[in-house]
Amino acid sequence: MSGIVGVIANDSARYTLFWTCLDKLEMPPGWRKETLIGGDWCGARNALCQMTLDSSAEWLFFMDDDHAFAPNVLNQLLSHDKKVIVPVCTTRSAPFPPVAFTERVDDSRYLPIYLPGQSDSGLVEIVAAGTAGMLIHRSVLIAVGGPRWFEYDAASEDLLFCNKAKAEGFDIHVDLSVKIGHITHAVMWPTVHEGEWAVGATIGSYGAATNVILPIEYGEPSTASEKVEA
Fold first, then answer.
1. Same-domain status, 50 and 107
2. Residue 7 lies inside a defined structural domain of this protein
3. Is residue 190 within 8 Å of residue 143, measured between CB atoms?
4. For residue 133, which phi and psi values (nearest 5 degrees)?
5. Could you give the CA distance from residue 103 to residue 89 in angstroms, rounded to a whole number?
6. To pair with 135 at 20 to 30 A between CA atoms, which of 16, 44, 74, 78?
7. In terms of domains, do 159 and 225 share one?
């Protein structure tokens, strides 16, 4: 006997898109999903690291709930058999730089990979990255050592973890063929731009948003309306 459970959800919450992606995520045999909910990012990441080592799992794949991704993202990253590898991802606020870094300037400043001129596929060695879609082999967790794989300091917890992995001799790569989205806020405003009606899209977090002008498109426009009152 077979059937379909049909779920209709509102797209106003970021979790809707994320959980749809997670439900469709393709996993090799023997993999399972673990979800930790709460505001302690480092604590949650460290708990998942410990959970990995306490089990027979070979890999830990991090994915936070503010991302969207294709079903094959995990299998694509696994295919390279690299100890630490990430997909391409940008910040969710303007000016939207990538969160994979090719140069460490000092303890708190990293330079993102420069994408113009790069191919849309292939691996690039980097010095650090955010944990968005980061795939980590258990050997890295063992070498870095717990219980504080992730912790806050001058840089964010994910960059500090990468520093520790690099110090233990592990390379970090970004796969240019694997892209994931960073879910953010967008507000669509009707506006007049250069004398024509359009839509102004405000994209990104408050205080770090960018504005984009988009055309209004009509499948079948109605007849012109007369102005009733000025």
1. yes
2. no
3. no
4. 75, 20
5. 17
6. 16
7. no
What is the span of the domain harbouring residue 219?
185-230
| pLDDT tens by residue, 70-94 | 999 999 999 999 999 999 999 988 8
H, E, C per residue of 22-84? HHHCCCCCCCCCCCCCCCCHHHHHHHHHHHHHHCCCCEEECCCCCEECCCCHHHHHHCCCCCE
Do 177 and 220 lie in one domain? The reply is no
Confirm whether pTM is higher than 0.90. Answer: no
In a domain, 127, yes or no: yes
pLDDT, tens only, 8-17: 555 555 567 8
Strand partners, 136: 60, 84
Q: Is residue 225 part of a domain?
A: yes
Does residue 217 lie in a domain region? yes
Q: Supply 78's token pair.
A: 């696994």
Helix (H, G, I), strand (E, B) or coil at 92: coil
